[in-house]
Amino acid sequence: MNTMHSGGCHCGAIRFQFEAPEVVTVYRCNCSICSMTDHLHLIIPTEAFHLTHGEPLTYTFNSGVARHTFCGNCGIKSFYVPRSNPDGVSINYRCVSPETFVRVDVDLFDGQNWEDNAAALSALSQPK
């Protein structure tokens, strides 16, 4: 069963809601961009995500598949469309209101060897 959760950037210019279980696993990735931003990935289906306020800026690199979004005011990357799940959204768990979660487990993801490991994430953006 899913619950409505909320989150956003530091300054509040970007706000969103999303549906996800109360018990989730988030992923700490060691790739170059995730290591620098310390993004904790909570990957959900696109249809479970609802931008409620603001319009983020977008940054792409390498293959151009991932669409990294960030606030033009405070610079925080609170969510993005990941290369591993172009049919989903990766929410930065650090940018959500934690009171609607019962438990959050953290797993490591080897993004430095992305090609060998990306398939392990592909089912996360599928509706349940």
Structural overview:
The chain is mainly beta and 128 residues long. The protein has a single domain, classed as Beta Complex (Metal Binding Protein, Guanine Nucleotide Exchange Factor, Chain A). 8% of the residues lie in helices and 41% in strands. The protein has two helices and ten strands; from the N terminus they run E-E-E-H-E-E-E-E-E-E-E-H. The strands form two sheets. It has a seven-stranded mixed beta sheet, with no helix packed on it. The radius of gyration is 14 Å and the shape is globular. The N and C termini lie close together (9 Å). The mean pLDDT is 92.
What's the arrangement of secondary structure elements?
Blueprint: E1 3-8, E2 15-20, E3 23-29, H1 32-37, E4 40-45, E5 49-53, E6 57-59, E7 67-70, E8 79-81, E9 88-92, E10 103-109, H2 114-117
Parallel strand pairs: 3-10
Antiparallel strand pairs: 1-2, 2-5, 3-4, 4-9, 6-7, 7-8, 8-9
Number of helices: 2
Oligomer: single chain
CATH architecture: Beta Complex
Query: What is the CATH topology assignment?
Result: Metal Binding Protein, Guanine Nucleotide Exchange Factor, Chain A
User: Percent helix among the residues?
Assistant: under 10%
Low-pLDDT residue spans: none
Q: How do the strands line up in the largest sheet?
A: 6-7-8-9-4-3-10
Q: For the record, what CATH class applies?
A: Mainly Beta
Mean pLDDT: 92
Shape: globular
Structural class: mainly beta
The overall number of domains is 1
What string, H for helix and E for strand, traces the elements in order? EEEHEEEEEEEH
Estimated share of beta-strand residues:
35-45%
| Rg measurement, Å | 14 Å
Q: Termini distance? A: 9 Å
Number of strands: 10
